[in-house]
Amino acid sequence: MRTQELTKISLCVALLAVFAYISFPLPFTPAPVTALTIIVNLIGFIMPAKEAFMTMSVYTFIGAIGLPVFTNGGAGIARILGPTGGFIIGFWLAAPIIAYLRNGSTEFKKLAMLGIVVGMPIIYFCGFISMNLVLKLSFWATMTTAVIPFLFGDVVKVLVAAFLAKKVGAVIKIGRASCRDRVYVLV
């Protein structure tokens, strides 16, 4: 991997770690509302699938070995195997799948639809399974604990991520063009 790719991966892992601390608990579920969904979707929207996979793998690995990068400073294998660990696995799967399916597109509608129709179901499915297995809840109890309370907020977060991806894509393109222009001016 090139330095530029490693830098992007490192920055996105850092964003994941920071945004994991932006969360608040809900009294009826062990899963907090978190800003991580914005960054997971943003990673899928702006990175190629390989880089998205590497980013999510590094994030999951450093959390698993004990660095406090999961929600509210959580870390360790126990966190991944706990009731909310499925969401971490869902993040790990969703970002590269979104990146692969977007096929380089930066169109807002396509990004939003991928996040809502592909990313959210993957994250919810994994979170549902882990919460159901660990807490031994009924189907409906798990739905009201792991999925339903988060639907509206996650749609909003996907839309925010799609908006940011559109802006970041424009800045990256402008940045490249202006660097090339400056080189030609200097020559």
What this model shows, in words?
There is one protein chain. This protein is mainly alpha-helical. It has one domain (3-186): Arp2/3 complex 21 kDa subunit ARPC3, CATH 1.10.1760. The chain has eight helices and two strands; from the N terminus they run αββααααααα. A two-stranded antiparallel sheet has the order 1-2. Strand 1 and strand 2 (29-34) form a beta hairpin.
Contiguous helical run count = 8
Strand content: 5-15%
How would a textbook summarize the main sheet?
2 strands, antiparallel
Just give the CATH class.
Mainly Alpha
| Topology as a string of helices (H) and strands (E) | HEEHHHHHHH
Overall 3D shape: globular
Helix content: over 70%
Structural class: mainly alpha
What's the structural blueprint in terms of helices and strands?
Blueprint: H1 3-20, E1 23-26, E2 29-34, H2 36-46, H3 49-64, H4 77-81, H5 85-102, H6 108-135, H7 139-146, H8 151-186
Antiparallel strand pairs: 1-2
Helix pairs in contact: 1-2, 1-3, 2-5, 2-8, 3-5, 5-6, 6-7, 6-8
Short précis:
The chain is built from eight helices and two strands. The protein is mostly helical and 187 residues long. It is globular, with a radius of gyration of 17 Å.
Structural features:
8 helices; two-stranded antiparallel sheet; Arp2/3 complex 21 kDa subunit ARPC3; 187 residues; disordered C terminus; mainly alpha
